Amino acid sequence: MLSVTEALERILSHFEVTAKEMVPLAKCAGRVLAADIIAAHDLPPFDNSSMDGFAIRSADLANAALPITLDVVADIPAGSVPTVTLAQGQSARIMTGAQLPKGADAVIPVEDTDFHSRDAGTTAPQTISFTRTVQAGENIRPRGMDLHAGDMILQKGHKLKAQDLGMLAMLGVAEVQVHKKPRVALFSSGDELLEVDSPLSEGKIHDSNSYTLAALIEDAGAEVLRLGIAKDTWESVEDLLQKAVNEDVDLIVSSAGVSVGAFDFVKDVIEVNGKLDFWRVNMRPGKPLAFGEYRSIPFVGLPGNPVSAFVGFKVFVRPALERLAGLMDGASPRVRVRCEGEIKSDGRESYLRAKIRTENGIHTVVLTGHQGSGNLLSLVQADALLIIPAGVKCVPAGQEVEAILL
Ligand code: AMP
Ligand code: MG
C-alpha cells in the first residue's frame, strides 16, 4: 500500500497551474498572482502632512522665544495643490494627507497652537502662535517613505489578501493578472443518501460530505460544480462522471464507493473509462482513497466516511488545488503541539482530532472524543488534526507532534 507521501507525489505530478486572466481588482480577494507586482510610483506619491495643523519652516522656531507667532498665508486642504512657497515668518494651515507647500519642512499639530476653533468649516486664522518648537521632518510623511517606484511589492504565486488589494489600489492597479480559478466537479455516491431537505427515512442518512467538501473546495480558492448524488449503480456513477467531463473541469472529486463493498462501483467505472492509479493509502482515517483519470480529467475518489473524506481532502486535494491555482507560498501551515496525555495509534500514519488547551500560557492538545471515521462531532469540536507518523504506536504524554490547524 502507498504511503501518504508517495500518494501525494503521484497525485501532484498530474497537476499544472491554470491559465492566466485579467481580473478587476475588486474581484481579486483570494486570487493568486500570475505576475510580479512592481511599484509604478513612489508611496506616498508626494510629501504630505500626517496631522491637521500648521506647516512651518523649522528654522523659524529654532532659536525663537516661545510662544512665537507666524503669519498664516495659505490654507491647504487634502487633495489640493499648494501654490505658495513659505518665506521666513510664514506658515500655512494644512490638513492630514495634504501636500506640503514648498519651503515648509515640519508640521505643528493644531493641538499645540492657540487656534481653538477646530470644528469642520472654520476658516484659517490670520496668524498663529505656537508654544513648542519642532524638528525638521516632524509630522511629515515624505514621498517614497513606504516604497519606491520599481520596488518588488508582491510576487507571482502569492494569494491576495485584503491588505494586498489595498496596496494594489494605492499603486493604481485596476486589473490584476491572476491564475484562473480551478474548477472542480463534486458528487456524492450511495443509495443511502438523501438530500438535506428530505426528511430522514428508515435506513437512510443525509448526504453531508458534499457540504463539507464544497466548502473546502471554495476555501481552497476553487470553483465548485455540485453534481448531486450518484446511486450505487454503474450507470448512475458513469452519468455523473460524464456530466463532469461535459463541464470541462480541472478535477473531479467524489466521495464513497471506492472501497471493497459489493456496490462500490466508482473505482470500477474509472478503471474502465479512464485510468485508476491507486485506490488505497496507508493512513487512518482515509485508507480507501482512489486516484486516477476519467477521460483525461484527474479524479480523486475520497472515502465515504465523513471524517475520512475531510482528512483525505486536506491531505491530498487541497495541495492539488494549490498547485492548480499557482500558489507558491501555500501549503497549509503545520505546527508542533504538545500532547497532554498519552496517545495510542495503530502504526498507520494517523490524523487525530484534537483541541488546543491553553493553561498558564502553555498550549497542549487533547483528543476530542470518538476517533471513528464516521464520528463527525469530534471533528466539529477539534481545532487541530494531529499527525501521528507511520510506525508510531504510542506517543507518550508531554511529547510534541506535528499538527494541521483547522
Ligand atoms: P462507502 O465508501 O460507500 O462504503 O461509505 C462509507 C460510509 O460513509 C458509509 O457509512 C456511508 O453511509 C457513509 N457515507 C458515504 N457517503 C456519504 C455522504 N455523502 N455523507 C455522509 N456519509 C456518507
Ligand atoms: Mg456506499
Summarize the structure.
The chain is α/β, with parallel strands linked by helices and 406 residues long. It has eight helices and 27 strands.
Features:
19% helix, elongated, binds adenosine monophosphate, 5-stranded mixed β-sheet, 6-stranded mixed β-sheet, 27 strands, 406 residues, alpha/beta, binds magnesium ion
Question: Could you please describe the fold and organization of this structure?
Answer:
The chain is an alpha/beta fold. The strands form 8 sheets. The protein has a 6-stranded mixed beta sheet with strand order 15-12-16-20-19-17, with helices on both faces. A hairpin with a 2-residue loop joins strand 19 and strand 20. It is elongated, with a radius of gyration of 31 Å. The model has no long low-confidence stretch (mean pLDDT 96). Bound molecules: adenosine monophosphate and magnesium ion. Adenosine monophosphate (AMP) binds next to helix 4.
Radius of gyration: 31 Å
Largest beta sheet: strand ordering: 15-12-16-20-19-17
- Which ions, cofactors or small ligands are bound in this entry? adenosine monophosphate, magnesium ion
- Runs in which pLDDT lies below 50 for 5 or more consecutive residues are none
The helix tally amounts to 8
